[in-house]
Structures are given as C-alpha cells and as structure tokens.
C-alpha cells in the first residue's frame, strides 16, 4: 500500500512538472526566466501570432496560448503556485475564475490602457542609418547585422548581488527609499522634508556582496545578431523597428532599435527616385547615327533590351515602362529612364575623314585637292 501511495505521489509530481514546463514553452522561455524576459517574450510572440497580422492556420490558437501563459507567469503569486502545483493547483486557488480576454490583454499591453502607459517606463530608443545596395532594394534581401548593447547580467538577473541572500533592506530608510530631514528655518522653527536615501540611492535595499560577473553593474556588454528583411521597393529612409531590442536595465523596459534604411550612392551606377530608376548608357558615334540593338543587365540579372533606330541625340532619355523600382508592398513597378551618352573618337583616320566628308558634304567631294584631306 505504501508503495502505491508513493507511486501516485510521484506521478502527480511528474505531471505537475510537465504542466509547469508547458506555459514556459508557450512563451519560449526557460523556467528561470526573469519578469522582464517573460514580458519581452509575450511582446514578441503576441505580435507575431495576432490574427490581424497572421492568417496562418493555428495562429489564433497560438495567440490565445501565449496570452494565457503570460497572464499566469507575469503574476508573481500565480507563477509560484503554478511552479509548485501546476494548472490544477492554480485552478483550485482561483476557484473557477474566468481568464482574461487575450485581445483586451494585448490592447492594454501595447498602450490601450492608460494604467499600462503610466506604469511602463521605457528605455532609450536607438536610431541607426543603415545603407544597403540598390540591388537589394530592388529584389529584396535578408541582411544580417550586429548590434552591441547592454543586457541584464545573466548571473544575477539584474539584481547586482552575488545571490538573493546578499540583498538586504536598507537600515538607513527602513526600505522606503526616502529619509525625513529636519531643517531649521528660523530660531525655534523647523521644516521637515523628504529626500532620497543616500545609503541605498532610493532603492530601499543594499547589496552586501556584489555579483562577481557584472561587478554590481547589473548589466553587461553583449553583441547580438539580427536580420533585416529588405522588402522589394522599400522606400528611401524607411524605418524598420526592432521592438524592445534596445539597452536593457532593471530600472526600465528596453526601448526599441530603429534602422533607417536607404540605398548606397554609387558613382556612375544606378540611381533611384521613388519608383523610378535611372541609368546612363554610353554609345558610339556610329550607334548614335545608325541605331543599335543591345542588352542591359538589370539589378536582379534579367535582361532589358535597348533598341534605337535612326539618330540618337546626346542626352536623349528613353523611357522603358514597368522596369523601374517595384511598388512597395503593392503590384507593379515604376519606369526605367535610360539617358544616352555619345562618345566621340579621339582621332579619325584619313579614310574615315574622307567618307564622313563625302557623307556630310557631298558637294565638296569633286573639288580639287579633296584627296589630300
């Protein structure tokens, strides 16, 4: 009988552990994740699977699961009960209460609720000018890049202490973070004011032993890799936002990293203005006079046929429809403008000069001394 009871207890513990891992798995975070990491994971996943943005099968169910996991793991009391007893224990604690609407939670988290806006203190946002090849703007591309930033120390999780046992209540302010200071204004008259505690800098706690990894700084330097998805036809100066990827701190919610994308200026190469593309093509005098048929290799490698019959004046601009920059997130493309530059030869042979003279000045071909040209 004893062994049966022991087996049942073991099964219940294992079930609780499996269940406990499920909510963390839903948010794609480890069980040791900090409050800030849980919030960051919800922010990323809820935007990824929101039905307004993601129409894939199962996306809405995933969105609901992410909201449910965040509702429990973002609450310290619920998380503690869940870690120990799983969702069964949590249901017993809540007494059958209904869960929050996942869409209301999403709205409140992203600024729909005034209270959320007041509570969340955002860190600085970084803006970086990011240049890409004009070919990447034309055909689209995935570009990897690195960002050096500050993240919470992975050893102390941003507390700055070697362990939780090394964090103590400040004796100077009793944990309130402020002190009452009495100042004499006039003889026999005093004023009492409240100032930030200088022993704990207003935190209410002091650290007896600093974290050996970050030396009490709470954050460390970190180089993170990201991928910029360049969409065909992306406008110049278009800003791509990486939510919550700025410098981290225990005192604020990480700000954003913004890339302002523009194409590199290439001397003598392709130029762009909105959906129009510009190219300068060099031709010889013979082609300018007699016409030509040649190929131009476009930015993605496909061939554009350039054909002219008759005379092409220097500086003439040929318009080729639908060969310009693709319309950003839309159908169609702009136009390609080809400007022709005529190159004159450095010198002419006597035979060529004679033939040109006969062509342009036939009346002078019979004059004496013409052969001496």
From TrEMBL:
InterPro entries: DnaJ_C (IPR002939), DnaJ_domain (IPR001623), DnaJ_domain_CS (IPR018253), DNJA1/2-like (IPR044713), HSP40/DnaJ_pept-bd (IPR008971), HSP_DnaJ_Cys-rich_dom (IPR001305), HSP_DnaJ_Cys-rich_dom_sf (IPR036410), J_dom_sf (IPR036869). Residues 22-86 form the J domain. The keyword Transmembrane helix does not apply. The lineage of its organism: Eukaryota, Fungi, Dikarya, Basidiomycota, Agaricomycotina. Gene3D superfamilies: DnaJ domain (1.10.287.110), Heat shock protein DnaJ, cysteine-rich domain (2.10.230.10), Urease metallochaperone UreE, N-terminal domain (2.60.260.20). Keywords: Chaperone, Metal-binding, Repeat, Signal, Zinc, Zinc-finger. It comes from Athelia psychrophila. SMART domains: DnaJ. It holds the Pfam family DnaJ_CXXCXGXG. The keyword Metal-binding applies. GO terms for biological process: protein folding. Residues 1-20 form the signal peptide. Residues 140-223 form the CR-type domain. A zinc finger (CR-type) spans 140-223. This is DnaJ-domain-containing protein. One of its GO terms (molecular function) is unfolded protein binding.
